[in-house]
Structure formats: structure tokens, C-alpha cells
Amino acid sequence: MTGLVVVVAVLAAATAFGLWRRARDGRVVEARVDEQLLGPDELGAPLGERATLVQFSTAFCQPCRAARATLSHVAADTEGVVHVEIDAEHHLDLVRRLNILRTPTTLVLDGTGRIVRRATGAPRLAEVRAALPA
């Protein structure tokens, strides 16, 4: 009987964690990064006039493909917005400095290179559009 209780408790905890993670995955939230700026030298590409969508990804990351499609779509449809994809494995110094803990992670930069929003997981199209600076 004790084994059954343990199995039920583990399944309940795993289900609760899965539901919590699913609800938070891909949400665009206000960034909690200090006032440091990211520039073209660090990103390897010029900044967008309105915003830059910086995606940290890895080669074998399946959600990174969905994030790439979403962010590229927003950049193509919105004037002054640029999408930059950075391979996290080859830019570990930047990953550590920005506290990137998993891929995909998306940073929304304003026109000056200041980080204003952040999303972990594949972001939703409507949330990315809403997160763009005016």
C-alpha cells in the first residue's frame, strides 16, 4: 500500500510541475537585467531601429525552430525590427553574462540595445508583437 501512495504522490507532483511549466513556457515578461546595452559587436549584426529580437538557441533544440519561425515572421512583417539568432554554445561568455539558462531564450532590445523583455521557451506570436517597444 505504501508503494501505491508513493507512486500517486510522484505522479501528482510531476503533473503539477508539467502544468506549471507549460503555463510559463514562452511567456514574454519584463526583463530583470541591469541597464547594460548590447551592441552590434556583441550580437554580430546591426540593431533594428525600433527593436531587435535576440534568440539564443542550440543546434539540437526543437523549440528553437518554432521560436526562429515566429521571430523571423515578426521581423519580416514589422518595420524597424531585426531578428538575430545566437548559437549559445559558441557564445558562452554572453550566455553567462545574460544569465541564459535554457534555449530558446529570446531577448527584446529597444532601438538603443537595452534589454526590455525576455522570454524562455518558444514565444507566442501575439506576445512578441505586444512586447515590441512603441
Strand composition percent: 15-25%
C-alpha termini separation: 60 Å
Which value, in Å, is the CA radius of gyration? Answer: 17 Å
Please state how the strands of the largest beta sheet are arranged side by side.
1-5-4-2-3
Which regions are unreliable across 5 or more consecutive residues at pLDDT < 50? none
Instruction: Please describe the biggest sheet, giving its number of strands, its sense, and whether it closes into a barrel.
Output: 5 strands, mixed
Report the principal-axis shape: elongated
Helix content: 40-55%
Total DSSP E strands? 5
Description:
- The radius of gyration is 17 Å and the shape is elongated.
- It is built from 5 helices and 5 strands.
- It starts with a helix and ends with a helix.
- The protein has a 5-stranded mixed beta sheet, with helices on one face.
- Strand 4 (105-110) and strand 5 form a beta hairpin.
- The longest helix has 23 residues, at 2-24.
- The protein is of the alpha+beta class and 134 residues long.
- Helix content is 42%, strand content 22%.
Topology:
Elements: H1 2-24, E1 28-30, H2 40-43, E2 51-57, H3 62-77, E3 81-87, H4 92-97, E4 105-110, E5 115-120, H5 125-131
Parallel strand pairs: 2-3
Antiparallel strand pairs: 1-5, 2-4, 4-5
Features:
134 residues; alpha+beta; 5-stranded mixed beta sheet; 5 helices; 5 strands
